[in-house]
Amino acid sequence: MKINDVILRTVTRIVVFIILTFGVYLFLSGHNTPGGGFIGGLVLASAIVLLYLSNDIEKVQKSLPLDFKLVAASGVLLATGTGLGSLLFGVPFMSQTFAYFDLPVFGKTELTTVTIFEAGVALAVVGVVVTIILSISEDE
Amino acid sequence: MFSVTFAIIIPFIIAALVPFIYRRFKLLHIGWFVMLVPITLFLMLARLIPSVASGKTYIHTYNWIPSLNINFTTYLDGLSMILGLLITGVGSLVILYSIYYLSTKESLQHFYCYLLLFMGAMLGVVFSDNLMVLYVFWELTSVSSFLLIAFWNHRKASRLGAQKAMLITVSGGIAMLVGFIMLHTMSDTFSIREIIANVGDLTEHALFIPTMILVLLGAFTKSAQFPFHIWLPDAMEAPTPVSAYLHSATMVKAGIYLVARFTPVFGGDQLWFWVVSGVGMITLFWGSFNAVRQTDLKALLAYSTISQLGLIMSLLGLGSIALQYGYSEESIIYTQATFAALFHLINHSTFKGALFMVVGILDHELGTRDIRRLGGLMTFMPFTFTVGVIGSLSMAGLPLFNGFLSKEMFFAATVQIMNADVFSLQSLGIIFPIIAWIASVFTFVYCMIIIFKTFLGPVQPEKLDKPLHEAPVGMLISPIILSVFVVGIFFFPNLLGGYILKPSMESIYPTFGDPANLTPSIHAWHGIKPELLMTIGVVLVGALLYRLLKKWKPVYGLLSSRYTLNAYYNNFLSFAESKSTNVTNKYMTGLLRDYLVYIYLFFILTVGGFFFYSGAFSISFSMDVRIRAYEVILVGVMAVAAVAMLFSKSRMTATLLNGVLGYSIAIFFVIFRAPDLALTQLVVESITTALFLLAFSHLPDWKKERVPSKTKITNAVISVGTGAVVVLVALAVLNYDRFETISAFFENAYELAGGANIVNAILGDFRGFDTMLEVVVLFIAGLGVYTMIKLRAKKGDENIENK
């Protein structure tokens, strides 16, 4: 059965970018306002799932040639890596730190190691969600 | 010290890099690259020998989990130096040897990855001061040993051997962990150095004896002591470089290291003395006795390793008696047993490593290691023959080789122990020299078997698959280097004694003052003493027994195969397997409904039960705010959706109704001003709905199930009960005041973590460890789904096992 999904496809093309931007915004704003790595990752994943829903899998894979298992693995590596990284500075495992910097464009900005950790979380979430949904949908 | 910590870390880092390097440089054997690691580490350690010999120790601490007393503390002293040098030194030689042993057709990236994992873990065991860290590395050596034994995993024997080694050593490891936790309870520290420093408070503690037994269980299983030795012969399914490295030179010495390390804690106790020396003696005899009957050269070496490990173990037991006496002129004589143990530890690694490599050469070049098919190889393989003879004669304890020196010291120690006047040794002490002598006779016999049956006698080319020829030079280098050590240590033993053994005596007898007093000068000739007479006796009787081997070998037939330890092990395994299958089949019905029943029952019993018994179900509505109209409407919508789900005809409807529930909860979060939760709930709900719909497309239509009404009633009761407990708990938490509130701490998130969003500050910083593990769990779940769907065997796929 061929479903006529012209509307869905057209809408998706625009909406996906809005969702992706929203996801990145959520991820970055998580430190001080609602958001964060987990939720940001989920939103990014839902955008990708939407792409897959409205287009066929081969087409998406051609324009988005990512192995999501690798994305998930690198996320886990990043998250655990930040934990180990703190050992290099002689502080206990999983110690996080933050500082304020004056950056050219952004002005006074807070940079924190939690962001790296959260990036790992986000990548892991995106990777796992898409991997699960793809494996189930590709199953014959 | 920095470099010692790095010595542990470097192998792990390189192990992670090996697959990438392997892919990049296909032409070069990856072993050449890997070999640089142990060589570098060996040189690094060797540089520290002089300062360690002068009594210096290196310690460095990384705070890991300071709140639990678990810190990554590395400690380099004389004792760990011996093991560290063996691990890196023998490691370099074994890797050089393996380059010629394993062809590039094998999956080398796995082999060297596992080998480096092992090397790092083993260095971790000997350099760790923290018991918990030591335990982690200890189990990691078991795991990497498992992977290496099962390297040729298409062979059933390899897999079974790996399983056996894993089961036995890991069970011992868990016993040891319990022992470590008990040690922590007694001493309130995980640091071995601190425990040793405060040992006086421990001996009277009620847990002292149980702790000792549990720690010994770990050591005995790892060092293949009777009756746990049965895993070692089966572990010989591993490639020979692995056997030479793990199962003779290093990993099996971990148990001995542990016993030596804990001698200052437990030594001096009567039970420790008898168990360690007794088990060692039994193992010494049983190993050498069984080695004689083997026809497979590698199995023979396995039993001989068991026997030699028993020898070292019993020496450590004998030496511990000195701590009972305390330091005095008279008690020094008993410390010589420990000295001999450490000396033999090194000697054994040299000659046994060489012998394993010789057997590997025979296996590799001739295609067999069965002594019934070998013979007369002396003229065809002169170099292999020389190394084999040197190794065997050293093992037999003959002069010109280092085995002679340590064997003599061993005899001297067993004779000396008869003079002790504690632990009823005046009457029982006589058994030590007797067992030692008998076992040494058997040792002599199997050493002769190695020499005469393989290298002398008639050649049998018709029984060999390959033509007779000498091994390539590359394979000979490592065994030749080892045999140079075998001879060299005989001529210059005091070099070893002064630089390597002396500082380690201080580690074992920290209260005995200057270790120079405990370090004897080793001489090959020390007059006609009992030990020399014993050696002469061993040679005479051993030679006689070897001549008459055919006459008395039927003795072994008397041992019924039904009552061997292996039979017990196999019976136990199949018994446990069938029992657990029965039990598991009883409750794993394959019906999701049943599993939910277990989960909810457990929930009602534990959560409901806890609240009920602790009297926490106190509900009061006095604090409640007024309920608003739209809250009632929202609850009404949810209730309708929930009830409607029961009557829906298709999965699609049910899923959508479930979605209504989820989105309504999200609205509740909005109303109650929890934007984080609302956001999360919304996105999770969308994705799970999509996931449900996807999954349902694979399922058959939702048919009405015929369930007996009795089941229906039970299920109804359980579901209502679960709902009731949830509601009651939700109401009761408002008044629950048993715990101190911790939210005040988190309110400082902006100062402590620099984040105004408390929720995320908790997730990423305060409780970051939890989040990290959750991410790992999520990842594992994702991999699980992927492998179950993508990699499952299709119908008609052949079974790749047991080819």
Automatic annotation (TrEMBL), chain A:
Name of the molecule in the record: Na(+)/H(+) antiporter subunit B
Major localization listed first in the record, in broad terms: membrane
Superkingdom in the source lineage: Bacteria
Stretches that traverse the bilayer: 7-28, 34-54, 66-91, 111-136
InterPro entries listed in its UniProt record: CPA3_antiporter_subunitB, MnhB
Ranges where the Na+/H+ antiporter MnhB subunit-related protein domain occurs: 7-131
Species, as recorded: Psychrobacillus lasiicapitis
Location(s), subcellular: Cell membrane
Keyword Hydrolase: no
Entry keywords, A to Z: Cell membrane, Membrane, Transmembrane, Transmembrane helix
Keyword Acyltransferase applies: no
Family: Belongs to the CPA3 antiporters (TC 2.A.63) subunit B family.
Coiled-coil segments: none
Pfam families to which the protein is assigned, alphabetical: MnhB
A GO cellular component entry from the record: plasma membrane
Entry membrane topology: Multi-pass membrane protein
From TrEMBL, chain B:
Stretches assigned to the NADH:quinone oxidoreductase/Mrp antiporter transmembrane domain: 128-422
Keyword Signal: no
Molecular function (Gene Ontology), one example: antiporter activity
Membrane topology: Multi-pass membrane protein
Superkingdom, natural source: Bacteria
Residue ranges crossing the lipid bilayer per the database entry: 6-22, 29-49, 78-99, 111-127, 133-153, 165-185, 205-221, 242-259, 271-289, 301-327, 339-362, 374-401, 430-452, 473-496, 532-549, 595-621, 627-647, 654-672, 678-696, 716-736, 771-789
Cellular localization per UniProt: Cell membrane; Membrane
Broad class of the protein's primary localization: membrane
UniProt-listed Pfam families: MbhD, MbhE, Proton_antipo_M, Proton_antipo_N
Keyword terms of this UniProt record: Antiport, Cell membrane, Hydrogen ion transport, Ion transport, Membrane, Sodium, Sodium transport, Transmembrane, Transmembrane helix, Transport
GO annotation, biological process: proton transmembrane transport; sodium ion transport
GO cellular component, one term: plasma membrane
NCBIfam families per record: 2a6301s01, PRK12645.1
Family: Belongs to the CPA3 antiporters (TC 2.A.63) subunit A family.
Name of the protein in its database record: Na+/H+ antiporter subunit A
Upper lineage: Bacteria, Bacillati, Bacillota, Bacilli, Bacillales
